[in-house]
Design goal:
This protein has 183 residues and is of the alpha+beta class. It has helices spanning 53-60, 67-70, 132-136, 139-152, 169-180, and strands spanning 5-7, 10-17, 28-33, 41-50, 83-91, 103-107, 115-119, 123-125. It folds into two domains: 5-131, Medium-chain alcohol dehydrogenases, catalytic domain (Quinone Oxidoreductase, Chain A, domain 1), CATH 3.90.180.10; 141-180, no CATH class. The strands form two sheets. It has a five-stranded antiparallel sheet with strand order 7-4-5-6-8. Strand 1 and strand 2 (10-17) form a beta hairpin. The longest helix is centred in the C-terminal third of the chain and has 14 residues, at 139-152. Its main location: cytoplasm. It is found in: Cytoplasm.
Amino acid sequence: MKSTTTSAQGVSMKAVTQDRYGSSEVLRLSDVPVPEPGDHEVLIKVHAAGLDRGTEHLMTGKPYAMRPATGLRRPKNPISGRDVAGTVTKVGSAVTRFAPGDRVYGVAPGSFAEYAVGPENKLAHKPAHLTFEQAAVVPISAGTALQALRDVGKVQPGQEVLVIGASGGVGSYAVQLAKTFGA
C-alpha cells in the first residue's frame, strides 16, 4: 500500500473496501479517510492484518442470519479485516492502557487498511518476541480457542480433549492450548 495522501477532505489512506456482499471480486483498493478514534479507542498504523474465516463471512454476507448485525443489503463497515498488529498513533480521551508508539495486536474492524481503529479492551501489547505478521494472526482464532477451552470447557490437567477440525485456525490453536493446559 502507498502512504497516506492529502485529499480535499483531509488525510486519506488506502484500504480494501467492498460496497456489496459477494466473493473476492467485490473487493477494491480505495482511498478513504483516516478514521478518528473514539473516547475508548486507539488509532493503529497497521503493519500486518490477519485473515480468519469470519472475514470471509463478512465479505460474502453468509450465513444470512448474521446480516441484521452486519448489514442487510451491504456491509455496515465497508473496510474489510478484523485481526491487526501495528503501532499506536493516537488514543481516545478515555484510553489508559496505550500511548502513541506502543506496539499492539488485537481486533480492529477495518484492518485491511493503512490505519484502523480498535477498542482499547480488544487490544494488547504485542509480545516483543513476535513479529507483527505473527501477532496479526493470533487475535480472533486464538481468542476463540481460548474461550472455548478455558471459559466454556474449563479444561483441566489430565483431561482428554477432542478437537474436530484441528487443521483450521481455531482448531490448531485449540490443540496447542489444550496441551498447554495439561490436557
